Amino acid sequence: MRIRSHWNKKGKERSLEETAGALAFIQWRIAGNALLDLENEGFQTDTQLQRLDVIEEFSAFLIHVTDRLVHDMLDEEERQRFIVALALKTADTYHDNRVDSEGRGQDFRQPFIEGLNRRLADYAEFSFENGEPGYAFRRYLGESVTSRMGERDRKWITDQVMEIEVPDMLKTLKKGLRDLLGLGKEEGAADKAGEPAA
What is the pLDDT of residue 155? Predict the structure, then answer.
């Protein structure tokens, strides 16, 4: 999966919040792509709300993995700012998608943040070594996604998530994170909208 992970103006200082916003965009695409993979494998989703539920699970996983990955890159205050900004930007995107699906009249950000906090607390119990989530960590994601999907071939969803989706998501996430934090090998041009370029 191709992502936009380079800034358009080389050498320009970016705040942690700007970087978190760009990463939130990338993570939303990663989560959406994982959902599409599941649907293409024949696993059942029936409504836009159900699809957003699955994306919510993938997003929580990606945010927590990001927190683990940046632990040694940023000091504690920077890491907290970065993850809070990432979570808030993702909540905004989730809210916008729910409004598109269901209409205005409700703020969907707070329920998203509350669910995210529960998942982050759960994931904190699992091992994460050498930049990789452990077996129980990946299995918990698989079971969480399974609980949000339809009944068709349900017993295989966890395996698909653990064996196929998690490695694909991590590869793309790590590349985006490396590039946005200036740890990548090359810098690219950005598009006119200010989003990172491919």
Answer: 87
